[in-house]
Amino acid sequence: xxxxxxxxxxxxxxxxxxxxxxxxxxxxxxxxxxxxxxxxxxxxxxxxxxxxxxxxxxxxxxxxxxxxxxxxxxxxxxxxxxxxxxxxxxxxxxxxxxxxxxxxxxxxxxxxxxxxxxxxxxxxxxxxxxxxxxxxxxxxxxxxxxxxxxxxxxxxxxxxxxxxxxxxxxxxxxxxxxxxxxxxxxxxxxxxxxxxxxxxxxxxxxxxxxxxxxxxxxxxxxxxxxxxxxxxxxxxxxxxxxxxxxxxxxxxxxxxxxxxxxxxxxxxxxxxxxxxx
Length: 277
Known about the structure:
The protein is mainly beta. The chain is built from 4 helices and 16 strands. The protein is globular and about 55 Å long.
């Protein structure tokens, strides 16, 4: 059976969900979307689950996703189970479970709808003043960021990332002490953003705690993503900010704007903080 998305891009192929002869759902989790150590990015996994949520539903777009990450997920085959909930003309609800050979790894409450791109907001908070992508720091694998090469993890190959110099002091050996990150991002294969890409983007920046000079892996425990509108083509601007780092936990709030300055997605996550070195 054909995947839910066109295989014309790396992202579509990597997030494709296919149907078995018996009616089950399968995905082949792509190793190219890792964050190091063979562990896949949480936004990538949630995009796979979002594909499954819309497959048989009445609406084409994920608009609200609440995901619990039960364990770190490695590449390889996975099965998905979708349990439909109430559905109407404007919204539909479902529960999606992703299971690998290691057992259940992701549980998602999904709401889908049909989004528009032309409805102007009645009010919106200001867009941060960030230099153009070409004036920001290139976080491509192997690029020199503060005199150190960017690690060649899969996610950095798949998502072009240009860090705002104002929030990238940590890369230059001068962390600001504030847990905030800003960057321009786009899919490296040239595919324009859509709601599924926005789900991915809601978890692609370095952990905000790096801005405090505290480095290490910050595994996501719970992630909530809201997709607000269909994005315009081009770069998306991301801001991630923590409100408190305490007791081994971090919260992170993302805001995502498209190339026109429209707020197109938001997210909030709870993650474990890296252990102090």
